[in-house]
Structure formats: C-alpha cells, structure tokens
Design a protein that fits this description.
Number of strands: 18
Shape: globular
Strand content: 5-15%
Number of helices: 22
Bound molecules: thiamine diphosphate, magnesium ion
Distance between the termini: 80 Å
Structural class: alpha/beta
C-alpha cells in the first residue's frame, strides 16, 4: 500500500531527489556536458556533495570518458547531456558499453510532452534513442513533490544504478522531460529527506531501493558431469578472453592446476599479468595457435572458454580448424561464440564454476596432471613452447636492425616492467590491441589491461583512457594509432579542463596500418582494376604533424626512437599532465617486421616440434 499522495513541505524537487538517490545507490562520478534543457540536472549533480563531476564539451567524447571511468572504477558512472543531437552523440559510447558490458547511467534532457513533435527548437525523438543497445529505457516525466512522485523518481534512480551494474553490466537510459523554469528559485543546499524515504531497517544513508543480486551457480551434479568430461581428456585448454572480474585469474590458475590444462591468457582477461599463480599460464597463445608443425602436434580436444571472444584471430582460427569440444562460460547469460562451433554454454558465475570444478577434480585425487608440480606431457609441451616463443621474440627484438628501429609493438614488450602495481594499460583498437596480445609478456605486476572490444570502434579511444585516468586508480598508459588519435582529438580538451594525467604512446604510421594485414591490401592488384585505390580508401596517409596540435590542446609532445622510448615512458608514467610520446613507423616496413617476428617464433617452434618427435 502506498502513502496517500501529498505534497511534502520542504521536500527537494524531484530532480534533486533523483540525483541524491543516484549517489545513495553507489554512483560517485558524473560526467556533464553543457546545455540548457539539462540545467536542473546539471545543477543538482554539481550541488551534491557525494558526487564528483567532470565537465566535457563534446558528448561523443564524454560518453567514452564516462565509459573509461566506469571501467576503471568498476562502478556505474552517470553521463548527462542536453536534448537533440547532443543525445545522439552519446550513441557510440552507449553501444560500446552495451557490448563491452560497462555500467553507464545515461541521462538525457528533453522537452516535456506538450513541446514534442511540434517544431520546438532542439527537439528530436529521444524515446528509446539507443534502441536495443541499452538494458533499460525509461521516460522520467515532469512530476511534482508529492510523496508518491518523489518515491517514483527515487526508485527510478536506484533501479538505474542497480540495472546498469547487474550482470551483464551495461548502459541504461533515462530521458527527462524538463519544464521551465530551468533555474531553481531556491538555494541548492543539502537535499532534505522526506519522512518514510528510507527502508525501516536501514540507516539514514541507505538508498530508497536497492537490489541484492545472486550469482548463478550450477548444482553439484552438473559440476560433476563437467569433471567427468575433463578427467577423461588429456588434451585440454583453458582459454581466458576479455573479462574484468579481478578475482577470476587466481581461480583460473587453480582450475589449470586441477585440470592439468594450460591457461591461454588474452591480455584483456587480466590473467596474463598479475601477482596470481601464472605457472600454467601461456602468454603467447596468439603465436602458438598459428598453423605449423608444432601446432599440428598439439591440437586440443577440449576447450574451456571464459570471458568474451579472445582478441586473437589465430586462436579463433585454431578453434575452427580443430573443432574441439567447446564449453563457453558466461555469467551474463551471453551466447558469445563467433567461431560457429557446437558448444555448451555455462550460464553460471565464472569464478564459482571454475572453483567448483577445480574442487571436484581435486576431490577425485588426480585426473591427468592434477598438480602443478608434475604437469602432464601435454601441458609441459605448451609451457615449453610458450617459453620458446617468448625467448625467440625477445631475441629477435634485440637483434639488429630491429633493435634500433621503431617497431609498433615495442611499447608492449617493455611496459610490463615499467608500469607500477595498479597501473592501467589501454590499447587502442586496430593494431595496438593485437600487438598487445602478441607481444605483452607475462609479469607479476598488478597491471590492468583494457581496450574497447565491445564494438571495436576506433572512435573515443583517447577519451576512454582519459576517463580511466580520472578514476585515479593508477597511472594510465594508452597506446593508440594515429587515425584513432585524430578521430578523438577532443579528448585532450577534456584532459585540460579536468587536469588529468596520462601517458599516450602515439603510434604514427601515417594511416590505417591494420589494412596492410587484411585482404584489402590486395586492392591495388591488377585484377581489381583500381590502381592506387588502396592508399586512398584504406591507407589514408594524412601527413599531419602532431606536435603543434598536441601542444595547442595543452599536452606535451615528444618523438621517441627505439632507444628513447623506454626512458621517455619511465619519466612519463605517473607524472602530472598528459604527455604524447610519438613513435614514427612505416606501414610497409611494419608489415615486414611483423612477418619476421612471426617467422622467428615459427622457427623456434619448429625446432621444438622436431626435438619432441625425435
Ligand atoms: C568508428 C570506426 N570507424 C572506422 C573503423 C574501421 N577501422 C578499423 S582500423 C582503422 C584504421 C585505424 O588506424 P590507426 O588508428 O592509425 O591504427 P593502425 O591501423 O595504424 O594500427 C579503421 C578506419 C572502426 N573500427 N571504427
Ligand atoms: Mg595508423
């Protein structure tokens, strides 16, 4: 039964009650874009002592900034903009948040019903603007200050935060009908509670509503059935794809020990680098999974996959070529399996499932290779190959001429040593994230590795990394391509307005380097009949000099050759302000060097294959 509607004397206006409730629901950060219709919300956010607000001018950048902040802080972040195209500009970040499972609370201001669809300025159809790319859309109507109306907006705020965070995390959209006057008639002091605003058993700071969400677990019998399958298999792999549960790497290490399977760790799985047990971890899965004699002798029969699809295309192709029994664990209830293989999806808490399976196997007193002290031949082979690949790569990288050349993946080869615990390493879309996968060595530092892999856009990369920097959880290093950097130059304005610090390694190959690796590279072939079209359509050389632009936007800029890169990074990481360290490369040479690196690894693996078969 609800309390009869009545106006509450001294109660806050509904928008301030809503904002107060966002803060009570665990939101600590808001990103605000300037505008008129959004004024009551902007003022309420700014006035709330529990919220830290950052102002960004460009909504597209602001959306990504909020996304980076949410990812790094592992909390939902609110982002506010005014009506019209401003709201549309948030869309790319909303889409990335949806597929990347990042909690965002998107607040858009709109005209009230009587001003919609009748030619009022800056008024578009904002209802369900982001379509299927949000977990929840709700229209927040203009309401008054009765207890029921305030209860309504308070519960919407709590529901928004809880829904954004619930697994799979993602964006929610609240569209506010806002009526003039836009400036409050009274001072914006602390928000007063109304009688009955808090649950009876809760303290004064409790939210109006909250949700206690359980983690889905399999029954013991179901775990036992998986244990049967695992115990009957020697040639198994655990593949950890992009995921952000900080506890999962240690659990996967226990699962590797109990199954006797090696753990192939994508850098975005957070299992590649960190203080957890990495004794059965394979960092070079992207290189080992490529076709060749070694791989032919080491084809898996069973794969337990965690997280999103791995970054590595060779791993995807390896799955397609070997067609192992595939188990995909996704606590968010997703169906992420783009190799198009028959699969069993486990819709249960990943850590809970892995721990349960490990415990069950340990309880059975040893399936094949049940302890880390004596890995099976299969696992020992993978670990030996991992070492051989990493050594071959390091040796090749330190050998002339590449030792003295700017090589695009080099930042990743040295960053695990240079970054402190708590550091955030962000890889741009396009080649940087692939180079991170192939070249980031394992290490024990607690470094968090991220990339926008939800929708793989090259837009908003710099903004996302700077949003992560705003979380102040640790120094941020971003490695980004030149086209992606140009796409998001506005990000540097945000850094200036909000006094942020970050290191940006700008890999300038004067265009889209990734296309040299893709079938588009054949565009200039005579059979296509468009000579010169490759550079025009895909290479897109621009010849832009970055120093003046970067400095004009308030950041520092330097150019580093192979020898200067390490010292420049060491000086920059953790220092105040934004520094762009540019490395200049050539796209054709980059392709050749990547091929050489892969060939060096392949030769080392071939040698291993010969050794083990003789
Ligand atoms: C928003 C968006 N537009 C276009 C693309 C297609 N695209 C993928 S990579 C790429 C070129 C990126 O160039 P750069 O950032 O310099 O990285 P590089 O390929 O040189 O490593 C483009 C245009 C995309 N992924 N996202
Ligand atoms: Mg480029």
């Amino acid at each position: 039964m609800t309390t009869p509607a009545r106006a509450v004397t001294g109660a806050p206006d509904p928008i301030r009650a809503f904002v107060d409730e966002l803060a009570r629901s665990g939101i600590t950060d808001a990103v605000i874009c300037p505008g008129s219709r959004s004024t009551p919300l902007a003022l309420a956010l700014r006035a709330h002592s529990g919220l830290r607000c950052r102002v960004l001018l460009d909504e597209r950048a602001a959306g990504f900034f909020a996304l980076g902040l949410a990812k790094a802080s592992r909390r939902p972040v609110a982002v506010l903009c005014t009506s019209g195209t401003a709201a549309v500009n948030l869309a790319p970040a909303v889409v990335e948040a949806y597929y990347g499972r990042v909690p965002l609370v998107v607040l858009t201001a709109d005209r009230p019903a009587e001003l919609r669809d009748r030619g009022a300025p800056q008024t578009i159809d904002q209802l369900r603007l982001y379509g299927g790319h949000v977990k929840w859309f709700v229209e927040v109507p203009v309401v008054g200050c009765t207890t029921d109306e305030l209860a309504h907006v308070r519960s919407l705020a709590g529901r928004a935060a809880a829904t954004a965070l619930a697994s799979p995390s993602g964006p929610v959209h609240l569209n506010f009908a806002v009526r003039e006057p836009l400036i409050p008639s009274s001072s914006l002091g602390p928000v007063a509670d109304s009688p009955g605003d808090r649950p009876v058993l809760a303290g004064p700071n409790a939210p109006f509503v909250d949700a206690i969400a359980g983690r889905p677990m399999l029954a013991a019998g179901e775990i036992a059935a998986f244990a049967d399958r695992v115990a009957a298999t020697e040639r198994g792999l655990i593949v950890a794809g992009p995921q952000d549960d900080p506890g999962l790497p240690a659990v996967l290490a226990r699962l590797a020990a109990a199954t006797g399977f090696p753990l192939l760790a994508d850098p975005l799985s957070q299992a590649r680098v960190g203080p957890h047990d990495r004794s059965l971890m394979v960092a070079t899965g992207d290189l080992l999974a490529r076709p060749g004699r070694w791989f032919d002798a080491h084809r898996p029969e069973l794969v337990l996959r965690f997280g999103a699809m791995p970054t590595s295309k060779p791993i995807l192709q390896m799955l397609q070529a070997t067609r192992p029994t595939l188990v995909v664990v996704d606590e968010g209830g997703g169906w992420r399996e783009s190799a198009l293989l028959p699969a069993t999806f486990v819709h249960a808490d990943a850590a809970g499932f892995a721990d349960g399976l490990a415990a069950e196997l340990r309880g059975r007193n040893g399936g094949p290779g049940a302890s880390t002290s004596s890995p099976s031949r299969w696992t020992a082979d993978w670990l030996a190959a991992d070492r051989a690949a990493a050594d071959a790569l390091a040796e090749w990288l330190s050998r002339p001429p590449v030792a003295t050349e700017s090589f695009e993946p080099r930042p990743f080869a040295i960053l695990t040593e240079l970054m402190p615990d708590g550091g955030i390493l962000w890889a741009g879309s396009s080649m940087p994230v692939r180079d991170m996968d192939a070249h980031l060595p394992s290490g024990q530092r607690a470094i968090r590795c991220y990339s926008n892999r939800g929708a793989n856009g090259i837009d908003g990369v710099v903004s996302t990394a700077l949003g992560a920097a705003a979380s102040e959880t640790g120094p941020v290093v971003l490695v980004v391509g030149d086209i992606s950097f140009l796409h998001d130059l506005n990000a540097l304005v945000a850094a200036r307005l909000n006094h942020l610090s970050a290191t940006i390694v700008l890999v300038n190959n004067d265009g889209g380097g990734i296309f040299s690796f893709l079938p588009q590279a054949a565009t200039d072939d005579p059979g296509v009949g468009l000579p010169g079209a490759y550079e025009e359509l895909f290479g897109t050389p621009h010849g832009i000099e970055f120093g003046p632009i970067v400095r004009a936007l308030g950041a520092e800029h330097s150019v580093a050759g192979a020898a200067e890169l390490g010292p420049a990074l060491a000086r920059s990481i953790g220092a105040a302000g934004v520094r762009v360290i540019e490395i200049r490369t050539d796209r054709a040479r980059n392709l050749a060097l990547h091929r050489e690196a892969t060939a060096a690894v392949a030769a080392a693996l071939d040698a291993l294959a010969v050794e083990s078969s003789s």
